[in-house]
Amino acid sequence: RFVYLADTQDLHIVPPLPIHEQLAAHLVKAINKFTEAIPYDKLLINITMHLNHHIQNKDSTNIPDLHLTITAQLPEDMESDEMVIAKLVSKWVGECGFSLDMNCMVHKLSITCDGHQDINYTLIISFKEQAKWHQPKEENIPAKQLHSASALDYEEFIPPRIKKSLRFGLVELKSHIWIDISKIHYTVYKHGTDGHFDFDNKNTATFAEGTLYPTLQMDDIEQMLSDTAESLKGYIILLMEGMVLEEAAIQSVCDSRPTFEPVWMAALNSISSTIYLTAYCRYLDWRNHKYDKRK
Question: Using CA atoms, how far apart are residues 67 and 199, in angstroms rounded to an integer?
C-alpha cells in the first residue's frame, strides 16, 4: 500500500505484512460483541468495523487501517416505489503502525479527520522494533548460503517450540535478525468540545495511552475505549429518536447494559503468532526478490 502525503510530498510504502491487520482484529471482536448486546433493529442501523477501508470526500481519499462506520436506513414506505439512500457516517478511525513512524500516522489521521467532521475518536497502535529492520548485508556469508539454498518452509524457518521470553522475538537465522519487537503501544484521541482533534494535547479528557508489551498497562486505554463504545450506544439512541421509532424500542436500548471487554491476553497470543509469520514473510521477500541500489 502506498501512502502519499501531498502537503509534505512524502511517499510511504507500507508492506502488507501479516502483523498489520492482527493489531486491530481483537478490537473488532470486542466492538462486535458490544453492539450485538444492544437490542436495536440491525436492519435499520448498521455498525461495521472495517479494516483497510477507504474513506472519501470531494477533496481526498484515505485508507485508514481501522474504520468504524454507521448507516441508518429509514423504515421503508410501503406505499412508495422510492427509497432513501442511507448515508455512511464515520465515527472512529485508526492506524496500525509497523513500518510507519508515529508522526506519519498522526499526520495521516489529521488529514482524515479534517475532512470528516463526524469522526470523534482515533486510535493508533504501533510496534517498536529493537532496531530498524534491514535485509541481510551482501557480505554476510551465512546469509548468502541461505539465499542460494532451496526456500525454507515455515516449519523449517520457525522452530516448533520457543522460550516464552521469545514470544515477540528475536527471530534470528544465519546470523541475521529477521524481527525483534521491543514494544506494542496504544494511543487513543478524542475530539475536543469544538469537534476538532488536538494531537499535541495530552489532556486525559481527550487522550489515553498504554502498552500491551513488554508490560501490560492498558487500564487507561480500556477506560477510553469503553467510553467510545458507550458513545456508540448514545448515537444509536439519537438515530432511533430521529427515526421516530416506538418508545418501547428506544427504552429497551436505553436500559441495555452492554460491556466492552477486549481480551488483551488473547490479543497477545494472536499477535505473537503473526510476529513469527511476519519474520518468515520478510525472509521470503528477501529471498525471492532481488533489489537494485537505484532509488
Answer: 18
pLDDT given at position 51: 83
CA angle 243, 248, 252 (to 5 degrees): 95
Distances in Å between the Cα of 53 and the Cα atoms of 48, 96, 251 are 11, 13, 33
Residue in this structure with the C-alpha cell 424500542, named with its chain if needed: 249
Whole-number Å distance between alpha carbons of 172 and 169 = 8
This prediction has a pTM of 0.84
Give burial (CB, 10 Å; 0-12/13-18/19+) of 295: exposed
Closest listed residue to residue 268, CA positions, set 186, 179, 209: 186
What is the per-residue pLDDT for 295?
Answer: 32
CA distance 24 to 124: 10
Segment 195-233, tens digit of pLDDT:
889 999 999 999 999 999 999 999 999 999 999 999 999
Cβ atoms of 57 and 113 within 8 Å: the answer is: no
**Residues contacting 208, CB < 8 A, separation 6+:** 187, 188, 220, 221, 223, 224
Please give the Cα distance from 89 to 206 (Å, whole number). 21
**Listed range (96-105, 126-135, 199-208, 216-225) with the worst mean pLDDT:** 96-105
- Calculate the CA 142 to chain-centre distance: 37
| Greater model confidence, 59 or 133 | 133
The answer to whether residues 53 and 62 touch, using CB atoms and an 8 Å cutoff, is no
Rounded-to-integer distance, Cα 251 and Cα 266, Å: 34
DSSP-derived secondary structure letter, 222:
H
- Three cell numbers at 196? 476538532
Q: Yes or no: say if 174 and 138 are a contact pair by the CB < 8 Å rule.
A: no
